[in-house]
Recover the amino acids of this structure.
């Protein structure tokens, strides 16, 4: 008896089909996007503009430091990240006109009138060894404090939250409660 040969399967088109499936899934699949911190960077200065030293009153700056051990200092006192939001809100509002907290300047805001705007600046400095998680947590608390202050202003003047205001109203709120955050280049804070 002769051995019966089994016919071979034609696999020449299998690679083409696999390639087409790969292309299909690459085109139809949505990739997860990385989210970052929304920051509006200042515009590039004019190269012909004279550089002037801007003097900032010491009382108008709160320095928030995060060291390599992920410990947070707000001003000169250690603070838990969960308490940072309240510390920043108190700093920016200066509710009792404390001479150690930032001064307020009467500012004419177009479409609103005169309002006492805080000159407070939050200076964030972190160590090169700071964990990314702690850095983001500190950033979130600072931004949350500013967002809450904007919501409070919105409720008291417009009766609704900041996010539901018109673009013109949001512009007024942003001028009344500015987001002044200064970030220094990471350095070795723990050796200071």
């Amino acid at each position: 008896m002769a051995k019966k040969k089994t016919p071979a399967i034609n696999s020449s088109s299998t690679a083409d089909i696999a390639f087409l499936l790969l292309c299909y899934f690459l085109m139809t699949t949505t990739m997860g996007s990385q989210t970052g911190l929304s920051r509006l960077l200042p515009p590039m200065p004019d190269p012909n503009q004279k550089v002037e030293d801007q003097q900032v009153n010491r009382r108008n700056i709160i320095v928030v430091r995060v060291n390599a051990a992920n410990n947070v200092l707000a001003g000169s006192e250690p603070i838990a990240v969960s308490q940072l939001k309240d510390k920043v809100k108190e700093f920016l509002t200066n509710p009792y006109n404390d001479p150690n907290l930032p001064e307020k300047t009467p500012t004419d805001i177009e479409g609103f009138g005169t309002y006492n705007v805080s000159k407070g600046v939050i200076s964030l400095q972190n160590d090169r060894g700071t964990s990314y998680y702690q850095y983001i947590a500190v950033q979130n608390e600072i931004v949350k404090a500013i967002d809450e202050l904007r919501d409070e202003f919105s409720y008291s003047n417009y009766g609704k939250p900041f996010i539901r205001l018109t673009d013109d109203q949001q512009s007024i709120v942003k001028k009344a409660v500015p987001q002044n955050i200064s970030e220094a280049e990471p350095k070795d804070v723990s050796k200071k």
About this structure: The mean pLDDT is 82. Residues 58-187 form one domain. The longest helix spans residues 132-158. The radius of gyration is 27 Å.
